[in-house]
Design a protein that fits this description.
Blueprint: E1 6-11, H1 17-25, H2 36-46, E2 50-58, E3 61-71, E4 74-77, E5 90-91, H3 96-109, E6 115-121, H4 123-135, E7 138-152, H5 157-164, H6 167-178, E8 182-187, H7 190-193, H8 197-208, H9 220-235, E9 239-246, E10 249-259, E11 262-270, H10 279-293, E12 298-303, H11 307-312, E13 315-326
């Protein structure tokens, strides 16, 4: 307990859907990676160590969750290290005593505590964590940063439309339409998407075979995760899936979500034997058009400063890795 107002307790699992949703609705973040569905699917698939969900209570009511897990004395956010980004607390983390209580509750629950390694936190959350750490006798060290790029469709609708008319994108699409016809299929139901996942995995594996970054789908856990997440996301109306078909074959796929108006360009892949005709750019154009058509507020390119992202993005944020360790 910090002071006399905030108490903490350990939550057994992700089953309290009503409380989680109530807290999510009061959160500053619009990150799909903080939803109960994403975190539960991640933990079921990749979880190791011990789940450590810390709840902060004020006057007997939970006001925030810290979705932690712990391994070998280190505390992490659930979702760390496996292509989640913008992680943090669920609920109102603007109150400094709440942040301090969540950290203290986790620290006291871990035998042989070594520290916190908190990945993909925003600059705002970093400031709050650093302030809370000082009050708990912890040193805060920023360990890395990575860019996260978005296109603001709401504030810059003309730029968004213009992006879909870029000559290179249209030229590549015209090639496929001219040479045998191009079909664009969008889907958002699990029964429409699941039958295509094995082909997506195979295409992604082939796409990255000759690079320094082999496909994560070589790991069976990733294939299981995408199947679980497709069902969970579809049940909430978040799933977005695009398939390009040309001459009777799939030449590109995109697996993503649209959450609270943020359309996430999450997992694209294309047929590598057609790379000189850039089916990936055709896929990007069609996905961006789909986001505009449904009235999405933003188009999220995810982390990384790839050149193609800089051609389209209107805003760049930085996610940070932050270590909190005893002095």
């Amino acid at each position: 307990m910090v002071g006399t107002e905030i108490k903490t307790r350990i939550i057994a699992d992700f089953s309290d859907e009503a409380t989680w949703q109530r807290l999510l609705d009061s959160s500053e973040s619009d990150s799909v990676f903080m939803t109960r569905e994403w975190l539960a699917a991640w933990w079921e698939t990749f979880g190791h160590g011990e789940l450590l969900l810390v709840g902060a209570e004020r006057d007997g009511e939970i006001v925030a969750f810290a979705p932690f897990y712990t391994q070998d004395g280190i505390v992490y956010f659930v979702g760390s290290g496996y292509e989640s980004y913008e992680l943090g607390f669920v609920g109102d983390a603007r109150d400094p005593p709440v942040v301090e209580a969540l950290l203290l509750g986790a620290r006291e629950a871990v035998e042989g505590f070594i520290g916190f390694e908190l990945y993909f936190v925003s600059s705002t959350l970093q400031e709050r964590l650093e302030s809370a750490a000082a009050g708990l006798g912890l040193d805060a060290n920023e360990e890395w940063r990575v860019s996260s790029m978005t296109m603001d469709l709401e504030r810059h609708p003309d730029l968004a439309r213009a992006a879909t008319r870029k000559k290179s994108l249209v030229r590549h699409e015209n090639y496929f339409r001219r040479e045998g016809g191009l079909s664009v299929v969008h889907a958002n139901r699990a029964d429409e998407v699941l039958p295509w996942l094995d082909e997506l995995y195979a295409q992604h594996i082939e796409r990255w075979t000759a690079t320094d970054s082999p496909s994560q789908f070589l790991d069976e856990r990733w294939r299981v995760f995408f199947q679980r997440w497709a069902v969970s996301a579809a049940n909430r109306g978040w799933l977005r899936f695009t398939r390009l078909e040309w001459q009777g074959r799939s030449i590109a796929f995109h697996f993503g979500v649209c959450y609270r108006g943020n359309y996430i360009w999450y997992k694209p892949c294309f047929a590598v034997d057609l790379a000189r005709h850039s089916p990936g750019e055709v896929l990007l154009r069609q996905t961006l058009l789909a986001a505009i058509e449904e009235g999405a507020k933003s188009f999220d390119f995810g982390t990384g400063d790839d050149v193609y992202k800089t051609r389209f993005a209107t805003d760049t944020r930085e996610m940070r890795g932050l270590g909190l360790y005893p002095r």
